[in-house]
Design goal:
single chain; 77 residues; mainly beta; 4-stranded mixed beta sheet; Cytochrome b5 heme-binding domain-containing protein; Cyt_B5-like_heme/steroid_sf; Cyt_B5-like_heme/steroid-bd
Length: 77
């Protein structure tokens, strides 16, 4: 069963201090820990551990990259 993360819980997964790097997009939580551009939990001014639904709409790759990422849960509504 998929884990449900609150925004507060998601903040812990910021890719720093040995933590995995998770981001939420449209209610789905993805693991970006093994994505090179997300090294250290940061990518183009964005920090892992948050909801990137708005930010991804401004990225050149858009949501196409999400299909390649492991899903680790969902964001609580």
């Amino acid at each position: 069963m998929a884990k449900t993360f609150t925004l507060e819980e998601l903040k812990q997964f910021n890719g720093q201090n040995g933590q995995p790097a998770y981001v939420a997009v449209d209610g789905v939580v993805y693991d970006v820990s093994n994505v090179g551009p997300w090294a250290g939990g940061k990518h183009h001014g964005n920090t892992a551990g948050g909801d990137m639904s708005e930010a991804i709409t401004h990225s050149p790759h858009g949501k196409a990259v999400l299909a390649k990422l492991p899903v680790v849960g969902e964001l609580a509504k």
